[in-house]
Design goal:
By secondary structure, this protein is mainly beta. The chain has one domain: YmcC-like fold (Beta Barrel), CATH 2.40.360. The chain is built from two helices and 15 strands. It has a 15-stranded antiparallel β-sheet that branches. A hairpin with a 4-residue loop joins strand 6 and strand 7. This is DUF3108 domain-containing protein. Keywords: Signal.
């Protein structure tokens, strides 16, 4: 089970963002609990956190976001996960500057760094220089870019395209806007925006539009619930804690 990858593989983006209207700020921290179900009962399998700071990085005014995912220690004997993802992205246009992925999942370990040169439209990795389109994000920066989408510009069924750089390749994907509805989570009840991302087929997911995500129907646009079948069983991810949101969490209608 790949806790943090679950959180980031649904990432999307599409519209140019206005820096004065960003949905997040430095100091924000969001924490999730990951539940796993294989025999009809959800168990608390792990946590995922996303923390945002403001830094000067390679002469850029930048945001530095760290995403960390881990299994609960009592389940480490079954399958131990300790993943860390980092992204430095421009504070003006949210384009990624550098991306770091440090994956430790059971016997599988992977470390990679990507440096983005948007002027020359290349990404620099261990494999060399790879061409990238004008609008491309890494898997972390695109989440924060995406939170600035105005879903009022879409109608149910619309597809929102995006480009994502992952594993030395550029993927052309989309999310489907489903509509708005109320969702009940472990944290409380929310007015939410419902979306379905196109997933890549891999070891965890079967691909297609099987995952469903609910984000707050307020200016924060933070995910509060994710549900998806996986190769074995199903997973559910719920918001459990947040700190220093930029906007009031007006989508919360009832706290547990």
């Amino acid at each position: 089970m790949k806790m943090l990858r679950l959180m980031i593989l649904f990432i999307f983006f599409g519209l140019h963002s206005n820096a004065q209207d960003f949905a997040f700020k430095a100091g924000e921290k969001i924490t999730y609990t990951v539940f796993y179900n294989v025999i009809g009962l959800y168990i608390n399998a792990g946590t995922a956190t996303f923390s945002t700071t403001r830094v000067n990085f390679q002469n850029y005014d930048a945001y530095h976001v760290v995403g960390e995912g881990s299994t609960n220690s009592k389940y480490d004997w079954i399958f131990k996960v300790r993943d860390r993802y980092e992204s430095y992205f421009d504070a003006d246009d949210l384009k990624p500057i550098k991306f770091i992925r440090n994956v430790n999942e059971g016997d599988y370990k992977k470390y990679e760094e990507v440096v983005f040169d948007h002027d020359n439209k290349i990404a620099i990795t261990k494999k060399g220089m790879i061409k990238i389109p004008h609008q491309v994000q890494d898997v972390i920066s695109s989440l924060y870019y995406a939170r600035n989408l105005d879903f009022n510009n879409y109608k149910p069924g619309d597809k929102i395209p995006f480009n994502m750089f992952l594993g030395d390749e550029v993927y052309n994907m989309y999310i489907r806007y489903v509509g708005k509805e109320s969702v009940k989570t472990k944290y409380g009840n929310f007015n939410a925006i419902k979306i379905k991302p196109l997933l890549l087929k891999g070891q965890t997911f079967n691909g297609g539009e099987k995952m469903t995500i609910w984000v707050t129907d307020d200016p924060n646009h933070i995910p509060v619930r994710i549900e998806s079948p996986i190769v074995v069983g199903t997973v559910k991810v719920d918001l459990v804690e947040y700190q220093n949101l930029k906007h009031p969490l007006t989508a919360l209608t009832k706290k547990k």
